[in-house]
C-alpha cells in the first residue's frame, strides 16, 4: 500500500458510501420485494449433500463461463446426513455442471488437497483459458482442535478445467495462499470486534468495465473504537458495523491484491453485508449484499433479504435501491425460506439465485430452529438451490416479477419463458 492511498482513509470516511439508519428505517415488505413461497424441490441438485452459498464459474470480465457447452457452479456443501445447523463447521467447496441450466451433475470437491482453514466458506471462481482461480474464505485454521472463527481471504491457483465425454472436470494440483487479512484501520480484526463477531470473508472477483482494473470485493467490518461518537455515541448501535470491502490488483495480476478503503459501510445499521457482488449495466453499478434480520442494529426492523445499492461508478456514491435498500425478501409466513442471493444480469431482467433454507418455519428469528426435533430440522431445511427469482430493474427501482424453477440458472443468451403479463389478451393486472 503506498502513502497516497493511506491519505484517503482510514479515519476519513468521506469517500465511502453509507447505508444509514435513515435509509434502513424505511425497510418494508411489499408487493415489489417479496418472493413467491417455495415448496420442496421435485429434484434436488444432489440428494447426498446440503448445498448453500453458490456462485458461477466466470471469466475475468464477469461473463458466465460456457465451457464446451457446460456452465459450472461452485457451492458450499456438506453431507446431507449432517444436522443442517452444523454444516458451516465442515463446509467444503464442490462444483456442479449443467448443459441446460436446469439439471445439475455433481463434479466433486474442488480441492484434492488440504486448503487453508478448518473449513472453506464462500468466494468466487475465475476461468481463464483452462486455468481456474478459486478465491475462498479460509475459516478457522487447518487441524485446529476447537473450532475458531478466524477468517482470511485465500486463493487457490494452478487448477485446470478440462471437458471430457462425461463433462467438465476440475483438477489440481493447487497452490494455496492467503491473499488478504484485515488491517485494523479500514477493516476490523478479530481482536478489535466488540459486537457479534467480526467478518472478513466472501471474496468476489471483479474487473471494472470502465477502467479494466482488477478488484476483489469482500464482506468486512469497519472498526469503531470504544468511546467513538459514531451512532451518537450509542455503544449498542456501534457494534453493528458491516462493510463492503475492496482490494485492488495494481498490475491486474489475479494473485496479488492490496486493500483499499471500503466501498460502503453500514455502521449503526447492520453487522453483516454478506457476499457483496456487482452487476454493471450501461455504466450503472449495482452493488448487492445479503443480510439477516438478526444482524440489524437495535431499533431497526430488517429481514433476511437481498439488499442493493446503485452508483454511477465503482467507488460510488452508492444510494440504496428503492430508497431503503431491500430488493428481495421472503414471505411473512416463511421468513427464512431462502438466503444468500446472487444477482446476475439477464437482458432487461435481473435474476437472483439463492439456496432453499428453512421452510414451514414462521418464527421471527432462527433461534428456535435448534429446539425442533432433529428430524424436523432436517425436514424443514431445503439445502438445495431455490427457485430463481426474476426481477425488473429500472434505474434505482426493482420489482419481483416471477420465478423460475429450483436451480434453473439460464445464461444471459437463453430466452426466459414469456411472463403471462406480456402475453397478448391477458387482461389481469401485472405484478
Ligand atoms: C452466507 C454466509 C457467508 C459465509 C457462509 C458460511 O450464507 O454467512 O458469508 O461465507 O455463509 O457458511
Which labels suit this protein?
431 residues; 24 strands; 9-stranded mixed β-sheet; binds beta-D-fructofuranose; Tachylectin-2, Chain A; disordered N terminus; mainly beta; 5-stranded mixed β-sheet
Write the CATH architecture name: 5 Propeller
Basic shape: globular
Helix/strand-derived class?
mainly beta
- Tally of helical segments: 4
CATH H-tier superfamily: Glycosyl hydrolase domain, family 43
**Unique bound compounds:** beta-D-fructofuranose
Summarize the structure.
The protein has 431 residues and is mainly beta. The chain contains four helices and 24 strands.
Describe this structure in words.
With 431 residues, the protein is mainly beta. Helix content is 5%, strand content 42%. It has four helices and 24 strands. Strand 6 (119-128) and strand 7 form a beta hairpin. Beta-D-fructofuranose (FRU) binds at residues 52-53, 76, 88, 91, 121-122, 137, 201-202, 219, 274-275, 339-340. Beta-D-fructofuranose binds at residues 52-53, 76, 88, 91, 121-122, 137, 201-202, 219, 274-275, 339-340.
Outline the fold blueprint.
Layout: H1 3-7, E1 17-18, H2 21-24, E2 49-59, E3 71-79, E4 92-98, E5 105-109, E6 119-128, E7 131-139, E8 151-164, E9 167-171, E10 175-180, E11 201-207, E12 214-221, H3 235-238, E13 241-249, E14 258-267, E15 274-281, E16 284-291, E17 305-311, E18 319-320, E19 326-329, E20 338-346, E21 349-358, H4 374-380, E22 381-385, E23 387-394, E24 397-406
Parallel strand pairs: 1-14, 2-6
Antiparallel strand pairs: 2-3, 3-4, 4-5, 6-7, 7-8, 8-9, 8-10, 11-12, 12-13, 13-14, 15-16, 16-17, 17-18, 17-19, 20-21, 21-22, 21-23, 23-24
Amino acid at each position: 500500500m503506498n502513502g497516497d492511498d493511506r491519505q484517503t482513509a482510514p479515519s476519513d470516511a468521506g469517500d465511502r458510501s453509507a447505508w444509514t439508519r435513515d435509509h434502513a428505517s424505511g425497510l418494508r415488505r411489499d408487493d415489489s420485494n417479496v418472493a413467491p413461497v417455495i415448496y420442496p424441490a421435485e429434484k434436488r441438485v444432489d440428494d447426498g449433500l446440503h448445498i448453500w452459498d453458490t456462485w458461477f464459474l466466470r471469466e475475468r470480465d464477469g461473463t458466465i463461463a460456457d465451457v464446451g457447452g457446460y456452465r459450472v457452479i461452485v457451492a458450499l456443501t456438506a453431507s446431507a446426513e449432517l444436522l443442517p445447523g452444523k454444516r458451516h463447521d465442515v463446509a467444503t467447496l464442490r462444483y456442479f455442471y449443467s448443459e441446460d441450466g436446469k439439471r445439475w451433475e455433481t463434479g466433486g470437491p474442488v480441492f484434492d488437497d488440504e486448503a487453508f482453514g478448518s473449513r472453506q466458506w464462500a468466494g468466487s471462481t475465475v476461468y481463464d483459458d483452462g486455468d481456474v482461480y478459486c478465491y475462498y474464505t479460509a475459516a478457522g485454521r487447518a487441524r485446529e482442535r476447537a473450532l475458531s472463527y478466524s477468517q482470511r481471504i485465500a486463493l487457490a491457483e494452478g487448477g485446470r478445467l478440462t471437458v471430457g465425454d462425461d463433462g467438465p472436470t476440475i483438477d489440481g494440483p493447487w497452490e494455496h495462499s492467503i491473499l488478504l487479512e484485515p488491517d485494523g484501520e479500514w477493516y476490523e480484526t478479530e481482536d478489535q470486534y466488540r459486537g457479534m463477531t467480526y467478518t472478513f470473508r466472501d471474496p468476489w472477483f471483479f474487473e471494472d468495465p470502465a477502467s479494466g482494473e482488477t478488484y476483489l470485493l469482500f464482506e468486512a467490518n469497519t472498526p469503531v473504537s470504544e468511546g467513538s461518537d459514531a451512532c451518537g455515541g450509542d455503544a449498542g448501535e456501534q457494534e453493528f458495523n458491516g462493510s463492503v470491502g475492496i482490494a485492488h490488483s495494481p498490475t491486474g495480476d489475479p494473485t496479488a491484491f492490496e486493500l483499499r478503503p471500503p466501498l460502503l459501510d453500514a455502521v449503526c445499521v447492520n453487522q453483516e453485508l454478506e457476499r457483496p457482488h456487482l452487476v454493471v449495466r450501461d455504466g450503472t453499478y449495482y452493488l448487492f449484499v445479503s443480510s439477516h434480520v438478526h444482524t440489524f442494529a437495535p431499533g431497526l426492523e430488517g429481514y433476511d433479504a437481498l439488499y442493493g445499492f446503485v452508483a454511477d461508478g465503482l467507488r460510488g456514491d452508492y444510494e440504496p435501491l428503492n430508497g431503503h435498500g431491500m430488493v428481495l425478501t421472503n414471505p411473512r409466513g416463511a421468513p427464512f425460506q431462502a438466503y444468500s442471493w446472487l444477482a446476475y444480469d439477464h437482458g432487461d431482467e435481473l435474476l437472483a439465485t439463492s439456496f432453499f433454507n428453512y421452510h414451514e418455519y414462521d418464527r421471527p428469528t432462527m433461534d428456535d430452529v435448534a429446539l425442533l426435533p432433529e428430524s424436523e430440522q432436517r425436514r424443514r431445511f431445503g439445502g438445495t438451490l431455490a427457485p430463481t427469482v426474476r426481477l425488473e430493474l429500472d434505474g434505482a427501482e426493482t420489482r419481483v416479477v416471477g420465478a423460475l424453477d429450483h436451480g434453473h440458472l439460464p445464461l444471459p443468451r437463453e430466452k426466459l419463458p414469456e411472463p403471462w403479463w406480456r402475453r397478448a389478451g391477458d387482461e389481469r393486472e401485472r405484478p
